[in-house]
Design a protein that fits this description.
Elements (H helix, E strand, L loop, with lengths): L12 E4 L4 E4 L8 E3 L9 E9 L8 E5 L19 E5 L2 E4 L2 E4 L14 E6 L5 E5 L2 E7 L7 E5 L4 E7 L5 H14 L7 H19 L14 E4 L4 E4 L10 E3 L9 E9 L8 E5 L19 E5 L2 E4 L2 E4 L15 E6 L5 E5 L2 E7 L7 E5 L4 E7 L1 H24 L15 E5 L4 E3 L4 E3 L11 E7 L5 E9 L8 E5 L19 E5 L2 E4 L2 E4 L14 E6 L5 E5 L2 E7 L7 E5 L4 E7 L16 H5 L13 E3 L4 E3 L11 E3 L10 E8 L8 E5 L19 E5 L2 E4 L2 E4 L14 E6 L5 E5 L2 E7 L7 E5 L4 E6 L24 H13 L4 E3 L10 E4 L4 E4 L7 E3 L8 E10 L8 E5 L23 E5 L2 E4 L2 E4 L14 E6 L5 E5 L2 E7 L7 E5 L4 E6 L2 E3 L45 H16 L6 H5 L48 E3 L5 E4 L7 E3 L10 E8 L8 E5 ...
Antiparallel strand pairs: 1-2, 2-13, 3-12, 4-9, 4-13, 5-6, 5-12, 6-7, 7-8, 9-10, 10-11, 14-15, 15-26, 16-25, 17-22, 17-26, 18-19, 18-25, 19-20, 20-21, 22-23, 23-24, 27-30, 28-29, 29-40, 30-39, 31-36, 31-40, 32-33, 32-39, 33-34, 34-35, 36-37, 37-38, 41-42, 42-53, 43-52, 44-49, 44-53, 45-46, ...
Length: 1633
């Protein structure tokens, strides 16, 4: 019976339309009550539509229910006056009998417009639910009486309503089922019917879905910001806050409706990530919690890999994915099915049933927790529509085949093998029917049978690659053929149960119709790993062959019928497999491959992943759009690997169609092919992509410029189009080999080439680098006659070689190598061309002592398991060594071989060390791995330049480097260089001539010398700097050839006639003996002359010669940049000429990779937002972001005439020099091309470039006469004899150093006139073994070790340099002391006194403590030896501002030499008796120095067995992650405390943190002194304020007080957020027994 209003109603109401429409008198605003004619039935919606509203009044419609009978009711003026059991919704509140019971509920009724609907329902459970426009607003009340009437109050603005028939409930469910049926319809039908049905279904689907698109509710967590029509949610302040990010859907989810979101942004700071689920709570009435898992009713959430119901774990392991491990772009969905089960979907894969008996009315919930910052709802209707279009295209393709409509020749069309959509009950087919998987592989092991969509052809290989495996079950994939049609087969639990027409390979046997016919056949399939391939083929003669990783296992059966389908059984461990096309082959082993190794593997190929309308053939060299007349997009192809520096990617257009507008689009992208979600056109990508479309250049889909010289739309068939990234980060296009100029700049390294076969362009092929370029050999990027490298790259390398004062040669591989390897690029690149083994390569010469042999990974082949091995071997390899005798892998070498496999060090087959380094399995393209044999016979491995520590000792003197291109490592390139060692080379004598003073810099291999490795020596010399520069190659060559530099000769180099060194106009500086340089003498090496570029900041005026820059206005816009790139090991130095105290701050300096010609100068140097490293004040900024504080001398404190310089060393590290003193390494891994940057900011108003190398340092006038006295000579001889017996400062004992200090103090041979500016470098330098110091009238030659020891007492001592002192640093990092009339040399006693009087105190709890006399501390040395025993790689530790072995001692003796620390409220400093080893900061974490003032200092106990594990992870680990025995001691807690029952525990008291059970004492015997100790260790860390809870000790039996400086109830801190802590240092304490 149709619903209607009761005939009795309010006095101002008129009923019409059969009592279904109610109209209130417009002149009044109240007395408009109407009730339903009959009591409401259970689950029946009473709904009205607002027909008319007037603006004269305030308020609007009200609706509800009442127990009052309308026949007896005395109608009040409004519904809110009803009593005796009445529930009314008014505005967005719920009133019961006139009193508010729900303050905020649902949508505000006052905001509804004409045409919108409101309704009310009493459920069978007695719950009251209101509806707005058919959307439930949630439960408003419960325990309602059985007999109630609906009430509508036409109040205020609402003047007319009409009852409408509702379709909520069953009709909606039926509609969802209908849609679901459409989505899953893969049945066979004719083309005509299919197209017709598609059109109808799409129209219906669109009409239904669009008005009901899911979006986020406007009420959400306190930190959430909604955008994009409430379809996108983002958590504010993601780096400061990790919770309060809960969002919910704006309406309840319907049955079988998929609510899916995409992760748009993650931050790598917090632990934990997104949590998703459902709840019965209405968002309008919910008080949003900090995290949704705190809800204790009506809520089911997926958190990590588990399911939580009402905050308690109900399933520990669910599905195949962990939400905490998802990345940006991954999708998460959920669906409540009609049977009440809840399912989750990850990237479209059904994870199975997560919960059952889910209530009908639930809202979707997303918690933007931890790492997850931003998500967007992915509308299901849009995706389904795209799927329907794809199905229609498939039907049209079949129609084209039947009627000959395909535009390409018949032989060019390939009927690709795919899986049939009909499959086993536990299997599913995805990825355009190319992939089959078992979605619930952890819950079931069988019913995974999948067949091909068509019968196999003769000699056609049906091959699949294993994508996923689970270790829970026994058995694995099975493969074979069957005569059964996939649409007719009654799918069994396993294919071996089929008793007719079936041949299967299972394990290593072959079964026919369920009976084993061959017991031992081929490789065992149960042992295959992820990435392995298995295939089957029916030969023309009817024999059946199986293939494993491309290798034929032999004939398995004969007389196979002609019509058989391929079949795989995803059984047991096998969870997912993908068909591998013979068109997308990886090596010539694949069927039908006829190209040579050089043709296929010396060139780029197209990746096998591409757009859905593209096809790759011809061994990856050709890409086409087969249906070019029917499709014009979705045909993107991408290169199989990233382009190398200066590498050309060139294609030729082979086919075009004259139908569409537009043509080929080409460019580069930094997105890996595996990570790219291919759009219809590449210009739709909005990040990390640079494209040329027509003549428009686009970056990330936004047009950068129009009218580029090359217009791709005008190209015709046969035209070649190429692209290359140049070393200046610009992207150039080439047409038929001719450079069209720079299209854009700022393109990063490791970009992939992209071609979009759009519009008219239907087919292209890659051109090998040695074809089609005969006429363009001289063009930029062309290949020279004798090299496969582009000329531009060759010229670049030649320029670098010529500019370097010490010529270097790249290591090369020996031509004797494994049979599957080809060498190219002058034997510097090795590529494996087939299979996974037989790919050994060796260095062509033996590795010299202290020389690193390093390779960079160029290509990987993810289908293989395992990875690269690297090491050294005593096998005396040579170019004539028989390559046929080499084994398949490095483990098979018969000679002694030391190598790394995974994270283990092995000698032959014996494991020497485990967990030696991060596993090589983690290496990716671009990573570098090296090996070095030190002079002491120890073996070291390096990963990305970081020394992993000693791997082995006592190696033979003559070893060769060996690299095994095993498994997924397919290609490597040599990156290491060796200095020229030709003894006959000009200018490289092996003996130092008498009378010459030799100086050496850091650019030589001598830095790696074991004798000088720990030295901090300085060169104090007054000889000709030009002579130093000229002699650099001599020392380098001499040391590399092993020539011992005579100590006596170096000591005999005396300054006989200083006046001979004075420069005479137009005359070269003479040598040390006073003889002028002759024409035949060895020429000096001159550095590159640098000047400022003419392009600069707006307020800069350059002087004549562009060597002086002055700021003419304001305080900013004073950035200047060098005109040329900064050569390695050359100091770029400026002098501050003018300061203005009116402004604050001062000069900034650094480097940038941006070319000055195209640069848009920011206001300050900190405005450079890419590829820039700037030093401002005492901080280092990268791309405008501060990454380090407390570095070097504060630039704001410099005065006029002070010198500031920057230098990039040979290891690509940035150094700052102040007044010639190296302030240490500011940044690492700088690019090859860097320009010097100076910002004339604030107080600094003018600078001038001064001498930038040793050769530019001119000898000052020596006006003081140098006289020799017998007394001083005796003192000198005594000091020299003392230093000769002490070749290594690290071996000096305390009493010996004191003797040297006393000797230094006693070396007073004359008066002390004036003062001297003396500076020490904070980084090791190499110097001659004697020191010439003119002091008054006597000459004193002091050993550098003596001066260095004095310098090391208090490092970083810097004095002011007068304007008349020409003091600069050089490539040899030498510090010169020159004497002028106003600047005299300080006597040794004054030097010692000045150094001993210096000292500073730390500025923060974590600042480096002044190392006063720390090298004399035996306790520190003992702690260093203990740390070394732990076997921790040096890469974990930071050695900046540290003492011996990187440690700082806090023993009682050392503490007396520095001011005592006081207790901080944020945590105490390191207590007495401990030794601190600073840790290197992991990438992406805050700088501890800058965070120490804001974060709190704490300590955590470190059991020795767990230290390496914690350091590997870079953060504290939960007890459960360190082992079951540790997790058992922790009490379980609720989700409110911690989600998995564990917490991170630390303390502001080291005494408490280092006590049991947090750590234990371990007995330790010092290997040097044989003393016995009890050793303990702990971590010092910073904790973010507000992220932890404070409480009393949780360990039983702890007495009071734990620490006298702390309240007993505040001694223990706990948190569940690992991202809220930063590891700062490892602390070690040794207690004597």
């Amino acid at each position: 019976m149709a619903a209607m209003f009761h005939r009795r109603c309010g006095e101002r109401i008129t009923l019409t339309n059969g009592n279904r429409t109610a109209i209130r008198n417009f002149a009044e605003f109240n007395y408009g009550l109407v009730l339903s004619a009959e009591p409401l039935a259970e689950n029946q919606l009473f709904e009205v539509r607002i027909d008319k509203k007037i603006s004269s009044w305030s308020g609007s419609v009200e609706i509800g229910v009442t127990t009052c009978d309308p026949d007896l009711l005395e109608f009040p003026s409004s519904a809110t006056d009803l009593r005796d059991g009445s529930w009314i919704m008014t505005g967005n509140s719920i009133l019961k009998d006139g009193r508010s019971v729900v303050e905020v509920y649902g949508i505000d009724l006052d905001k509804l417009k004409e045409g919108e609907r409101i309704g009310v329902m009493r459920t069978s459970e007695g719950e009251l639910v209101f509806y707005v426009n058919g959307v439930s607003q949630g439960v408003a009340a419960d325990d309602l009486p059985a007999r109630i009437f609906a009430v509508v109050d036409l109040y205020g603005k609402c003047a007319q309503v009409t009852i409408v028939d509702s379709e909520v409930g069953v009709p909606d469910s039926e509609r969802s089922e209908s849609e679901a049926e459409i989505n899953n319809d893969h049945g066979m039908m004719t083309v005509t019917n299919l197209v017709a049905n598609l059109n109808v279904n799409m129209n219906v689907n669109t009409a239904v879905a669009v008005p009901d698109r899911l979006q986020f509710h406007e009420r959400c967590g306190t930190l959430v910001k909604l955008s994009c029509n409430n379809r996108t949610a983002e958590r504010r302040r993601p780096l400061d806050e990790f919770n309060n990010g809960v969002v919910m859907t704006h309406r309840p989810l319907r049955e079988n409706e998929l609510f899916e979101i995409r992760i748009d942004r993650l931050v790598d700071k917090w632990s934990g990530s997104i949590e998703v689920g459902i709840t019965t709570h209405n968002p309008t009435a919910l008080e949003f919690p900090a995290t949704m898992t705190n809800m204790r009713s009506g809520t089911t959430m997926m958190s990590g890999c588990g399911i939580l119901t009402n905050g308690k774990g109900t399933r520990r392991e669910y599905g195949e994915f962990n939400l905490d491990e998802l990345r940006e772009g991954d999708r998460i969905g959920m669906m409540r099915k009609s049977n009440g089960n809840l399912h989750y979907f990850i990237n479209g894969l059904d994870q199975g049933v997560a919960a059952t008996k889910v209530p009908a009315c639930v809202w979707g919930v997303v918690d933007l927790y931890g790492m997850t910052v931003k998500v967007t709802i992915v509308d299901r209707d849009e995706r389904e529509e795209q799927n329907l279009i794809t199905r229609r295209n498939t039907a049209l393709r079949d129609h084209q085949i039947l009627h000959g409509l395909n535009d390409l020749p018949d032989e060019d069309f390939v009927d690709r093998l795919m899986f049939h959509s009909t499959c086993g009950t536990h299997a599913a087919v995805i990825n355009n029917c190319r992939t089959a998987h078992r979605p619930n592989a952890m819950d079931d092991f069988n019913n995974g049978v999948v067949l091909t969509n068509r019968p196999l052809k003769s000699n056609e290989l049906f091959e699949v690659r294993l994508d996923k495996m689970v270790t829970k079950w026994a058995g694995s994939i099975e493969i074979g053929v069957t005569t059964h049609n996939p649409t007719e087969l009654e799918y069994p639990s396993t294919m071996t149960n089929v008793r007719s027409g079936t041949w299967m390979m299972t394990g290593n046997g072959v079964m026919h119709n369920g009976t084993m016919v061959i017991d031992e056949y081929g490789q065992n399939l149960d042992r295959l790993q992820v990435g392995d391939r298995v295939g089957v083929m029916c030969k023309e003669n009817g024999t059946l062959h199986f293939f494993v990783n491309g290798l034929d296992q032999g004939a398995a059966a004969s007389n196979i019928p002609d019509r058989v389908y391929g079949v795989i059984d995803l059984y047991g461990q096998a969870a997912q497999a993908t068909i591998v096309d013979s068109l997308d082959c990886y090596s010539p082993d694949t069927i039908n491959s006829s190209l040579s190794n050089m043709t296929v593997y010396s060139d780029l190929r197209f990746h096998h992943v591409h757009g859905k309308n593209a096809r790759v053939s011809n061994n990856g060299l050709t890409a086409s759009r087969p249906r070019a007349f029917w499709e014009f997009n979705d045909a993107i192809v991408i290169s199989n690997r990233a382009l190398r520096e200066g590498e050309m990617f060139e294609v030729v257009i082979e086919k075009m169609v004259d139908r569409w507008s537009g043509s080929i689009e080409a460019g580069v992208t930094a997105i890996r092919p595996e990570d790219l979600d291919f759009p219809s056109t590449m210009t739709d990508i909005n990040h990390d992509t640079w494209m040329l479309s027509g003549s428009s250049v686009l970056q990330d889909g936004v047009t950068l410029r129009n009218g580029y010289r090359c217009d791709l739309d005008t190209l015709t068939t046969g035209t070649r189009i190429g692209m290359m990234r140049h070393e200046d980060e610009s992207l150039h296009y080439y047409v038929d080999g001719l450079d069209q100029g720079a299209a854009c700049d700022g393109v990063p390294l490791h970009v992939y080439a992209v071609v979009d076969l759009y519009g008219q362009c239907a087919q292209v092929s890659i051109i090998p680098p040695d074809r089609g370029r005969e006429n363009t050999a001289l063009a930029v990027g062309a290949v020279s006659e004798n090299s496969s490298q582009p000329l531009s790259l060759q010229h670049y390398q030649q320029a670098n070689t010529n500019s370097h004062p010490n010529s270097e040669t790249t290591h090369r591989f020996s031509v004797s190598c494994g049979k599957n390897v080809i060498l190219r690029s002058g034997n510097t690149v090795a590529t494996r061309v087939r299979n996974y083994a037989h790919a050994l390569v060796f260095s062509n010469t033996a590795v010299e002592p202290d020389e690193t042999f390093e390779v960079c990974i160029q290509e990987v082949a993810p289908q293989w398991a395992g990875t690269l091995h690297i090491g050294v071997t005593s096998l005396q390899i040579s170019d004539v060594y028989p390559a046929g005798s080499l084994p398949p892998t490095v483990s098979g070498l018969t000679a002694d071989t030391w190598y790394i496999t995974g994270n283990e060090v092995r000698r032959n087959s014996t494991t020497l060390k485990v967990n030696y380094c991060p596993s090589l399995e983690w290496l990716v393209v671009g990573n570098r791995v090296g090996v070095r044999r030190d002079a002491d016979g120890s073996l070291h491995f390096l990963i990305n330049g970081e020394d992993m520590g000693v791997a082995a000792t006592n190696l033979p003197k003559r070893v060769f480097a060996v690299v095994d291109l095993y498994g997924n490592t397919q290609s490597v390139a040599v990156t290491s260089v060796r200095s020229s060692q030709d003894p006959g080379a000009a200018g490289s004598p092996t003996e130092v001539e008498e009378g010459e003073v030799v100086a050496a810099g850091t650019m030589g291999e001598s830095l790696r010398s074991s004798k000088l490795h720990d030295s901090l020596e300085m060169l104090l010399d007054t000889t000709s700097p030009t002579l130093h520069s000229a002699r650099l190659p001599e020392l380098s060559a001499a040391e590399e050839n092993g020539t011992e530099m005579s100590h006596s000769k170096s000591c005999e180099g005396r300054l006989e006639d200083p006046s001979s060194l004075l420069p005479v106009s137009g005359t070269a500086v003479g040598n040390a003996t006073g003889v002028p340089n002759q024409a035949s003498a060895e020429p000096a090496v001159h550095p590159v002359v640098l000047e400022f570029h003419e392009n600069h900041g707006r307020n800069v005026q350059l002087g004549e010669g562009r060597r002086t820059a002055k700021r003419t206005a304001s305080y900013n816009q004073g950035v200047v940049i060098s005109s040329k790139p900064l050569p390695r090991e050359q100091l770029f130095q400026v002098r501050i000429d003018l300061l203005n105290s009116r402004w604050m701050s001062s000069l900034m300096c650094g480097v940038t990779c941006q070319s000055p010609e195209k640069m848009h100068f920011p206001l300050t140097a900190l405005g450079f937002k890419k590829n820039s490293w700037i030093i401002c004040s005492d901080s280092v900024f990268v791309n405008g972001v501060k990454v380090r504080g407390g570095y070097g001398l504060n630039l704001d404190s410099l005065q006029s005439c002070h010198l500031v310089g920057i230098l990039v060393d040979s290891e690509s590290r940035l150094h700052l020099y102040v007044n010639g003193v190296d302030q240490g390494v500011a940044a690492c891994d700088l690019p090859a091309v860097c320009y010097a940057v100076v910002d004339i900011y604030g107080q600094c108003e003018e600078v001038t470039i001064v001498g930038s190398s040793v050769s530019s340092i001119q000898a000052s006038s020596l006006l003081s006469t140098v006289e020799s006295t017998s007394a001083m000579e005796e003192t000198q001889d005594r000091i020299q004899l003392e230093s000769e017996s002490l070749s290594e400062k690290a071996d000096l004992e305390c009493d010996e150093k004191e003797k040297l200090s006393e000797l230094l103090t006693s070396c007073v041979g004359g008066e002390n006139h004036g003062t001297t500016e003396i500076m020490s470098s904070s980084s090791p330098v190499v110097a001659s073994k004697s020191l010439n110091m003119p002091i008054s009238s006597s000459a004193v030659s002091l050993p550098l070790s003596v001066v260095s020891n004095a310098m090391n007492i208090v490092p970083n001592v810097t004095a002011n340099v007068g304007s008349d002192t020409n003091l600069t640093d050089s490539n040899v990092e030498a510090v010169s002391i020159t004497n002028t009339p106003s600047t005299h040399i300080l006597t040794p006693s004054a030097v010692s006194a000045q150094l001993m009087a210096s000292g500073t105190t730390p500025t923060s709890p974590l600042s480096a403590t002044p190392m006063v006399a720390l090298k004399n501390c035996e306790y520190l040395n003992a702690c260093v030896r203990f740390k070394n025993v732990l076997g921790l790689p040096d890469g974990f530790f930071s050695y900046i501002d540290s003492g011996v072995g990187g440690g700082i001692c806090y023993c009682e003796c050392c503490q007396k030499l520095r001011s005592g620390g006081v207790m901080h409220q944020k945590g105490e400093p390191v207590p007495s008796g401990w030794c601190r080893f600073a840790l290197r900061r992991p990438p992406g974490t805050p700088d501890p120095d800058s965070a120490a003032d804001k974060w709190h200092v704490a300590f955590s106990g470190a059991p020795l067995a767990d230290i390496r594990t914690v350091l590997d992870h870079g953060q504290l680990l939960l007890p459960g992650e360190l082992g079951l025995e540790r997790s058992a001691s922790w009490r379980d807690k609720s989700k409110e405390d911690d989600s998995d029952g564990s917490q991170l525990l630390f303390s502001p008291s080291l005494k408490y943190a280092a006590s049991p059970p947090f750590t234990n004492k371990y007995e330790y015997v010092d290997p040097k002194t044989k003393h016995r100790y009890e050793a303990r260790a702990a971590f010092q860390l910073l904790v973010q304020p507000g992220s932890y809870k404070i409480g009393p000790p949780s360990v039983a039996g702890v007495g009071k007080p734990v620490d006298p400086h702390l309240d007993h109830d505040t001694v223990e801190w706990v948190t569940k957020e690992r991202g809220a802590t930063i590891l700062c240092a490892l602390l070690v304490k040794l207690d004597g027994l």
